[in-house]
Amino acid sequence: MDLEALLSGLYDEEAHKSCIFYACMAVLFVISAVFAPLIGYDLLFDPRLRVGRIKFSMEPVACTGLGLGHDGAAPPPLSFNVTLHATSTFRHTFCSSGGATLQAAFSGLTVAVGQVAPFCLEPREPAVIAGTAASAWTALPHGFQERIDRGREKSGGLELEVNLSFKNEFKGEMWMRCRAMLDANLLNKTACTTFIRTPFIYTN
């Protein structure tokens, strides 16, 4: 085989590879052109994926077990009810069909747990969600009770961290962290910080 034939064969081989490459690029371009409008429609117009925001705030309603009981008796187990105020800017109904898990912690230690019933939030409509948390202990440890008492004397109330977690079909898992001063004669509404796993929800 002479040099001219060899070069011609190499040229044909490279040309063939180039044709395959450009053909693949053309196919990818066509596929992108077909699916790009669909993806754009989902992001911009499909209400399930529309960017929005959900705001929660927590209002402690009633609390027991923070101090001594009647006649100096041991305090009853820690228990409190909270009311969550929620608003949604999504264009669709936002639901948590499995309800939510409620945890209350003091100084990093979980002192009460509970469940929130399943709920739904309508677009741009305020909603109220009730939850109850109670301690599994029949009495708080003595040293821990002393820390609670000192905190109440120092600040005039007991600051608890309340965590709420739930799932949504389209938005994934969601966690909320609220802080509030809890006491029998003190009601305090506080905003909650929200953590999520999906980029389609903006948090407050």
From TrEMBL:
The chain crosses the membrane at residues 20-45. It comes from the Eukaryota. The keyword Membrane applies. Keywords: Membrane, Transmembrane, Transmembrane helix. PANTHER family: LATE EMBRYOGENESIS ABUNDANT PROTEIN LEA-2 SUBGROUP DOMAIN-CONTAINING PROTEIN, OS04G0515000 PROTEIN. This is Late embryogenesis abundant protein LEA-2 subgroup domain-containing protein. It comes from Urochloa decumbens. The lineage of its organism: Eukaryota, Viridiplantae, Streptophyta, Embryophyta, Tracheophyta.
